[in-house]
Design brief:
The protein has twelve helices and 25 strands. Strand 24 and strand 25 form a beta hairpin.
Length: 471
């Protein structure tokens, strides 16, 4: 009886599986293709060719000869080895048309230093292009193609916040200059912040093959929308190892919006600094896991101060998006539109609160007053500036820093030889406090030519130091 039941069950199970796995009855049931998606998206992805003139020093082959260097080493370093020659350097990359009038987005590193930019469509039409704005900190650039009224195909912008790990994506670009190429893959990870490629690291990671030349190209979702701009790969040999990174389209949208309004990239600033939440901090604040940003300093009069953010608060979410660490906070701020009001969810003394934060541009207060210093004093050859949130953000420096800083210096000058560094903040000279460029100029004029020791107070890498020099 048992055997009869067993064989009957086996027969029924296999019959059911046979009914599910039926033979395909049409070609459509056997065909899986990205072709319709590619036909829609590919025309808006372009090849970008750039050229610039560089100067190279012509050298005698003798100086590069291994036998010669074996005996003389670097003894002839610095010896004139011929004149400089001009050379045209060409490079290539990819880009995406986002407006039919010819607005193209690409990577900053694709067009950096370019004198001539040419955009070539996949139908082989060629157009000259001009650089509208470029932002090294996000590695994004905006070009304007000279179309003479020709309407160009575009790729609609998607929503990178809607992506999930495992979603199918296509990468379209011009790898190695072989021509437009399409590769497929999935979203391997989201919010990669440890890549270190840009200041605003918050990358989409994909295993769709991305190679040199793909930079600036499109990462497309299954709805034919742009969800990322391909930017970099992890590779030891220069080829694709299945780890590629794309800038989320929400960052791209923010940069395009800012450029269209102001003609340059202007990002909102927080007016506060913070640190990541460790497991120990999470335990002390009774958090379920290490998440959020602990605020340790608030800039008086800044947007965070005006919103009511306080030292010791933990920012958990911005407009419903979880903030896991400072890089995530930085990214969320950078994608806000100037003038908009956002909702910050914070933890304060164990209670959750909501603050309304207005996205404002960093102010240049005080004005930078860029000044080249000359004279018989330790700062001869230095270019100094007043620090402000706007200047600091522009340079990628800590927006919380205040005071007077060395911005540039003349090579071989007194300030250079004495070991001062770019970004050193000058706090005092011979016991006299310095807060502005005007203060510093007044002190130097008063003490110029004096004999005796100079005592210079500086802040370097966040640490106060006092340097002494013999006059």
């Amino acid at each position: 009886m048992f055997l009869r039941i067993f064989f009957l069950s086996f027969f029924l199970i296999n019959t059911a599986q046979a009914e599910i796995k039926t033979i395909p009855s049409s070609r459509l049931e056997t065909q899986l293709s990205y072709a319709p998606l590619v036909k829609s998206a590919a025309p808006a992805v372009v090849n970008i060719y750039t050229s610039k003139t560089v100067r190279t020093r012509s050298t005698s082959p003798l100086f590069n000869d291994p036998f010669f260097r074996r005996f003389f080493g670097d003894a002839f370093r610095g010896v004139p080895q011929g004149g400089r020659k001009k050379k045209v350097q060409n490079s290539l990359g990819s880009g995406v048309i986002v407006e039919s009038s010819g607005v193209v987005v690409t990577n900053h590193h694709v067009i950096e230093g370019a004198e001539d930019i040419k955009v070539v469509l996949n139908d082989r039409r060629e157009f000259e292009a001009k650089l509208v704005a470029s932002d090294e900190r996000t590695d994004l650039a905006i070009l304007q193609v000279q179309t003479d009224g020709v309407v160009l195909p575009t790729l609609p912008l998607g929503d990178s916040d809607g992506l999930e790990v495992g979603d199918l994506v296509l990468a379209i670009g011009n790898p190695f200059g072989v021509g437009q190429t399409v590769t497929s893959g999935i979203v391997s990870a989201l919010a990669r912040t440890q890549v270190g490629i840009t200041d605003y690291s918050f990358f989409i990671q994909t295993d769709a093959a991305i190679n040199p030349g793909n930079s600036g190209g499109a990462l497309v979702d299954m709805n034919g929308r742009l969800i990322g701009v391909n930017s970099a790969i992890y590779s030891k040999g220069g080829g694709s190892n299945g780890i590629g990174f794309a800038i989320p389209v929400n960052m791209v949208r923010s940069v395009i919006s800012g450029v269209s309004k102001t003609g340059k990239v202007v990002r909102p600033w927080l007016g506060a600094s913070g640190q990541p939440i460790t497991q120990d901090l999470a335990d002390s604040f009774n958090l379920e896991r290490p998440t959020g940003v602990l605020i340790d300093e608030v800039y008086r009069g800044g947007p965070a101060d005006e919103a009511g953010l306080q030292r010791g608060d933990i920012i958990l979410k911005i407009d419903g998006h979880v903030v896991d660490e400072p890089k995530a906070l930085q990214f969320r701020l950078a994608t806000l539109s100037l003038g908009d009001t956002s909702r910050f969810e914070i933890l304060r003394h164990g209670s959750r609160k909501t603050l309304n934060f207005e996205a404002l541009p960093p102010p240049e207060v005080p004005r930078r007053s860029e000044t080249r210093l000359k004279g018989y004093h330790p700062f001869d050859g230095a270019v100094v500036v007043n620090l402000s949130p706007a200047f600091n953000d522009e340079q990628g420096w800590n927006v919380m820093d205040k005071g007077v800083a060395i911005y540039k210096m003349v090579r071989g000058s007194t300030v250079n030889r004495l070991g001062f560094r770019i970004r050193d903040r000058i706090t005092g000279v011979n016991g006299i406090e310095v807060k502005t460029v005007k203060d510093l100029k007044w002190v130097l004029q008063r003490m110029e030519g004096r004999k005796g020791d100079w005592r210079i107070g500086i802040i370097r890498n966040g640490k106060r130091q006092e340097l002494q020099f013999r006059g």
